[in-house]
Design brief:
178 residues; alpha/beta; Uracil-DNA Glycosylase, subunit E; five-stranded mixed β-sheet; globular
């Protein structure tokens, strides 16, 4: 399973060198991964903290920390070839959990790019939402609200909501359609 985020946070992954590590979004995300049996511990504070993920790869649509944490479509397009190259090494990944609408749109573009030059973006474009699914090829996409403080502090995204999406994605990634 691929967890596909927005971009490295300036004071999180950009500082620590590991996606969602050292910031509150990561605290929320890794606690959920642990509850779902997808991580060996509920925290990620540094690259050498002993964290091991089980069947999960974490990546971002944009590879650098954008100003004000707002990447542009141009940055997304510039980074797309890097995501394509990364996924070429992850041949067993068939499910992507898209953390936020920006990641959802980037994953739609990634699917088209992975499909080759004749592939295009689906029309009409599948709408993002928490729990939304798109049966794309080669990646099935599942949407989740981003675990940002803006979403978690307001209750837009709760632990149960994220756990539900991650458990569902893990079942799909393991070949269980339920």
């Amino acid at each position: 399973m691929l967890l596909f985020g927005l971009a490295p946070a300036a004071h999180g992954a950009n500082r620590t060198g590991r996606m969602f590590t050292g910031d509150r979004s990561g605290d929320f995300l890794f606690a959920s991964l642990w509850r779902c049996g997808l991580a060996n511990q509920p925290t990620s504070v540094s690259p050498d903290d002993g964290l091991r993920l089980n069947g999960v790869w974490v990546a971002a649509a944009v590879r650098c920390a954008p100003p004000a944490n707002r990447p542009t479509p141009e940055e997304r397009e510039t980074c797309l070839p890097w995501s394509v190259a990364e996924l070429a090494f992850l041949k067993r990944v068939k499910v992507a959990v898209c953390l936020g609408a920006f990641a959802w749109d980037a994953a739609l573009r990634l699917n088209a790019a992975l499909g080759g030059p004749s592939e295009t973006l689906p029309r009409p474009r599948p709408k993002f939402g928490h729990g939304a699914e798109y049966d794309g090829r080669p990646l099935k996409l599942i949407g989740s609200y981003h675990p940002s403080q803006q979403n978690t502090f307001t209750g837009k995204l709760t632990p149960d909501m994220l756990d539900g999406v991650l458990r569902h994605a893990a079942r799909l990634a393991n070949g269980d359609a339920g």
